Structures are given as C-alpha cells and as structure tokens.
Amino acid sequence: MNSWMLLDDRLDRDLTRQTGMSHAYYEILVQLSETEGRALRMSELAERCLSSRSRLSHAVSRLEERGWVRRQVCAEDGRGQLAVLTDAGFAALEEAAPVHVESVRTHLFDQLTPAQVAAMRDIGETLLRHLNAPAPPHA
C-alpha cells in the first residue's frame, strides 16, 4: 500500500471514529457548504467529489437518512435533482471540521519539514496546472 492510500485511510478512520462521519460524506458536505444556497445538481456534485452518479446517489440517500441533506427538483428545468445541505448537515460539518483539520495536521504536516511542505505545494501546483489543462483534441 502506498503512503497516500495509508494517509487517506488514517484520515477516514480518525474522522469516522470521532464524528461518525466518513471522509466521503464529509467531502459531500464540504462541497455543498461552499456553494451559493448550499445546493448543487447531483451530476455536478458527483463530478466535484470524483464519484460516479450511482455511488453519489447512494451516499446522498444515507445523508438524507441522517437529516444532513435533502433532495429537491431543480427549479430551472424541473428534470434535474439538487442535493441541498440542511442546517443539521451544516452543524454536523462544523463539528467535524476541527477533527479533520487536526487529523491532517497530525498525520501529514507535523511529519514534514518546512522544506518538504514547500516542495509538496510546488508539486501540487504543477500537477493541478497539468490536470486542469484542457485535453488535447484526438487525432
């Protein structure tokens, strides 16, 4: 297993153990919290979470059961569905955020020197430029 997989697993275990919320659910709530009206089309939310639509739909169903998210029909076209962060979901996110931040600090940043953090930032920015660039047309 590589270091990134181990880190992801540790962050998920810490968050789940201390809050009862998986990292996948946390990411969904974060994405919704950062949008106007705390709502996103399900398809856009799936893209932002790098998830399949079916996997995201299942996760949103679990979040609905907890009262953290609700679905509503998209007012613009009446066809699409929105995932909407509820006040209870926002409160759960606010409670979980410090736990997640502390876990990231403990298991990532506290293990690195300032030079390593700077190198990681540089590598991350380089990869983002590459991965966010438009794909070349197929020949």
Give a quick summary of the entry.
This protein has a single domain (3-132), classed as Arc Repressor Mutant, subunit A, CATH 1.10.10.10. It is 63% helix and 9% strand. It is built from six helices and three strands; from the N terminus they run ααβααββαα.
Describe the structure.
By secondary structure, the chain is mainly alpha-helical. The protein has one domain: Orthogonal Bundle (Arc Repressor Mutant, subunit A). Helices cover 63% and strands 9% of the residues. Strands 1-3-2 form a three-stranded antiparallel sheet. The mean pLDDT is 93.
What fraction of the residues are assigned to beta strands by DSSP?
5-15%
N- to C-terminal distance: 37 Å
Largest sheet: 3 strands, antiparallel
Shape assignment: globular
Number of strands: 3
Task: List the main descriptive attributes of the protein structure presented here.
139 residues, mainly alpha, Arc Repressor Mutant, subunit A, three-stranded antiparallel sheet
Topology:
Elements: H1 3-19, H2 23-33, E1 39-41, H3 42-48, H4 53-65, E2 69-73, E3 81-85, H5 87-107, H6 114-132
Antiparallel strand pairs: 1-3, 2-3
Helix pairs in contact: 1-5, 2-5, 3-4
